């Protein structure tokens, strides 16, 4: 299941790994190049939401997953074909199709995880998925350049064809993901037969207007998610120049320190996932993660300390947050709304990222990095406020977000006993 | 309530950073005092106030240069001997009366502009091979326009604009070099990039190249200057790294040239600039050209050209003063070349006393105070609320028990 997302994450960052080559071979400037990412992001603001809805309502999880991974595959192939035929607009179209599948696939992956592992090792599974995603990005960053080089050597010259062939090879990982989707579908079907387990939908009538009935806790989780991620990803996107100017790093060092967040989160996510599984207390972990991130941002903003400290802290807290935050959704909404909830979460996260990325650029140009860091810190503080509120809301309503794992187990057993007695 | 305390603390910390010398001075600007000629440019700026006078003498005679003379009286006067000043031996042509009121003086002269072909786009000026250098522009060979026409008494500014006299390559057909000088009568901050903070004790100098045709499309430039200090001291480069780039986005370094005189009895002069130049008029971040200082090299020979420095300090400069030369090169590796907009502007401050330092803006302090205070307030209020609820629940239960 973890490999399901591998292909999409691998290909998502293909442009970034081959930025120089893409710009040279396709003869486009940086702004046009960034369009490749924009074309991925914008449709997702709406689509994730529908993706989740489609999984819950229309296709069911198995068919949904297969369809979305098909989109990813086709998108990547179109993207590569665009390079082969030297048509940049085709590449953009490819990214659009790829985007339709990409984020929705992530929603499907989350839903699968919950339907199989809720009450068991859910946090660990989320951790593993995250680390797989990071491995995908990292492998891509390191491998695509080499592949390009090899093909260039084999063909004797560089050009759009080289790029196209390289990207086609990247598409193989998508095929691999699709194979995973098929296997998953088969396994899930079998499990359903053997265990009489229901598929991740119950046939209950859910409407899009369900969104307004989402519990307050879920909205708070959304708020934490948006405020947190907007202070991490746009910062990493703008970080390279920051390390070069403020800490006088060479471009190479700056690139290295900028990717340390991802590198740390790859091995650490499963560890944290396991830990949160064993200990429960999700809200406390989220709190720790958010406060640590705030500390990291404050360090970067107001001190000249070695940024490796702050960036490592950021990497650690980022993986902890992902492991503790995402599974919480499963505790606050009924299972049949999970797809919608995850889709919505992904949607507003994308929306937040798109808006804040633009805003961050404007702030940087007019007021500089100090102000940008202050702005990001304020976002994190917003997130802290949401965590604190979540804690109290959960406390007052006696929700089970902050129970220890043994308390959860106890509750689950009691519920089973009740079920049996009915 | 906690937010309030935080706010107060941070505000207190913020106000400490505001320079104490918020004094103002009266500025007097004079073009060629005591001469009706407009063939040469000599501008005298007097900044009077607080029982002292700072004289700035700007001139394009010889190479463009400035003298900074600090006197401990409001009534010191500049005495010029024009015939001597324009003669081959100008020594003693510029003097201050009374002579014993002069507490400190220094000078800065701009001598040459280097242009080199940055073939690999590494912006490595000091490491560039000799063969990549074009013949340098010697600023003493320039023809300068009449600065009287540019004198603006409301903004307290003027330009010294010049073009290469010989100009064999025609580079200056549509362009020029200019030094724009702006005096200040009070504490404040510039509206245009790099938005330098200034006091009444300093003057801003902007070096600007506009429309000058580069001799290659990968040309980068550097400005050569020299400065002097009495034998007891020596000019030193000081790089001040700050965490605050609010006013000059992405630029965290301020360079200061200050005398290295640990046991000086009085304040001294300084040159200060942010490590940045701009490649366009609007001075946006995308057009910023980081600049680098190269070497403070001892120059103990005679001056390359007679100038106001010789006129004020007299002969045998080398034996009585420590003279150092330095280059400021513009541009960064993988950055845009001058050719892009054919424009370059670099700003520096020339002043007396402690160089101004940036401090956090009130906006930053407020945002931090609110952002950090609010979660704390919420936490405390929440705890009280939960405690209160628990108590009521507890009291509700008691009768049942």
TrEMBL record, chain A:
Name the InterPro entries on file: MFS (IPR011701), MFS_dom (IPR020846), MFS_trans_sf (IPR036259), MFSD1 (IPR052187)
Q: Where are the transmembrane segments?
A: 36-55, 67-89, 165-187, 216-236, 256-276, 283-302, 308-332, 344-364, 370-393
What reactions does this protein catalyze?
Answer: L-histidyl-glycine(out) = L-histidyl-glycine(in); L-lysyl-glycine(out) = L-lysyl-glycine(in); L-aspartyl-L-lysine(out) = L-aspartyl-L-lysine(in); L-arginyl-glycine(out) = L-arginyl-glycine(in)
Under the heading SUPFAM superfamilies, the entry gives: MFS general substrate transporter
UniProt-recorded Gene Ontology molecular function terms: transmembrane transporter activity
The main place the protein resides is: membrane
Topology with respect to the bilayer: Multi-pass membrane protein
Among CDD domains, the record links this protein to:
MFS_MFSD1 (cd17340)
Q: Which UniProt keywords apply?
A: Lysosome, Membrane, Transmembrane, Transmembrane helix, Transport
Tell me where it resides: Lysosome membrane
Limits of the Major facilitator superfamily (MFS) profile domain: 1-397
UniProt similarity note? Belongs to the major facilitator superfamily.
Chain's role: Lysosomal dipeptide uniporter that selectively exports lysine, arginine or histidine-containing dipeptides with a net positive charge from the lysosome lumen into the cytosol. Could play a role in a specific type of protein O-glycosylation indirectly regulating macrophages migration and tissue invasion. Also essential for liver homeostasis.
The protein here is known as Lysosomal dipeptide transporter MFSD1
TrEMBL record, chain B:
Cellular component GO terms held in the UniProt record:
lysosomal membrane
| Keyword Nucleotide-binding on entry | no
**Keywords annotated in UniProt:** Glycoprotein, Lysosome, Membrane, Signal, Transmembrane, Transmembrane helix
Renumbered to this chain, the signal peptide range is 1-17
Top-level taxon: Eukaryota
Q: Membrane topology type, per the record?
A: Single-pass type I membrane protein
TM segment ranges: 362-389
Q: Where does the protein end up?
A: Lysosome membrane
Q: Which InterPro entries match?
A: NCU-G1
What family is reported?
Belongs to the GLMP family.
Primary role = Required to protect lysosomal transporter MFSD1 from lysosomal proteolysis and for MFSD1 lysosomal localization.
Which proteins does it associate with, and in what oligomeric form?
Interacts (via lumenal domain) with lysosomal protein MFSD1; the interaction starts while both proteins are still in the endoplasmic reticulum and is required for stabilization of MFSD1 in lysosomes but has no direct effect on its targeting to lysosomes or transporter activity.
This chain belongs to the protein called Lysosomal protein NCU-G1
